[in-house]
Every structure is written in structure tokens, then in C-alpha cells.
Design a protein that fits this description.
Elements lengths: L1 H92 L9 H10 L3
Length: about 120
């Protein structure tokens, strides 16, 4: 009786082992496929993030360049204004009336005059 029970247990174990051995390759293949899919998704996401970072970096670069250009224009306007004040000061120091203001001062006034 005991040997019959032992034989039944051994048979059941062999069947389970056979089943596991048959499933193992398909499970291993499925796992490999999932790993490849995950790696591909990750690579696409990394590429997408790189492109977004590059795009944002270019946007920031353009914005900074635009801001510097605007600051440069402001500085130029200040230089024109300073030139106008210097020309006016010269005229005042010479006690010359507004009709005899030099040509350059009049030009500066026209350039500086707000629109």
C-alpha cells in the first residue's frame, strides 16, 4: 500500500515537472519579449524627452537672444538721448537761441521724439 502511494506521488511529481518544463520555454520567451518591448518603450520615451529638452533649450536661447537685442536697443536709445542732452548743453553754454541749434542736435531730437 505504501509503495502504491509512493508511486502515485512520484507519477504526480513527474507530471508536474513535465508541465513546468513545457511551460518554461514559452514563459521565458514571453519574458524576453516583454523585456524587449519595455526597452523599446523606454528608448522611445528617452528620445522624446531629449527632443523636448532640445526644443525647450532652443526656445530659451531665442528668448534670451531677443531679450538681449531689446536691451541693446534700449541702450542705443539712451545713447541717443545722452547725445541730445550734450548737444543742448553746448547750445545753452553758448547762449545760442533755438533757431541756431546745430544740425546734429535737431536730427537727434527727431530720432528720439516719441511716436
Amino acid at each position: 500500500m505504501r509503495t502504491d502511494a509512493d508511486k502515485e506521488i512520484e507519477r504526480t511529481e513527474r507530471e508536474h515537472n513535465d508541465t513546468v518544463e513545457k511551460r518554461l520555454p514559452s514563459t521565458s520567451e514571453q519574458l524576453s519579449r516583454l523585456e524587449r518591448d519595455q526597452a523599446n518603450r523606454l528608448a522611445r520615451e528617452v528620445q522624446s524627452l531629449r527632443e523636448e529638452i532640445k526644443r525647450r533649450s532652443e526656445d530659451i536661447q531665442r528668448t534670451i537672444e531677443k531679450m538681449f537685442a531689446e536691451l541693446s536697443n534700449v541702450k542705443t536709445d539712451r545713447n541717443l538721448l545722452a547725445g541730445l542732452f550734450v548737444e543742448i548743453a553746448r547750445c545753452l553754454n553758448q547762449d545760442v537761441g533755438p533757431k541756431s541749434i546745430g544740425k546734429s542736435a535737431a536730427e537727434l531730437a527727431r530720432v528720439w521724439a516719441p511716436s
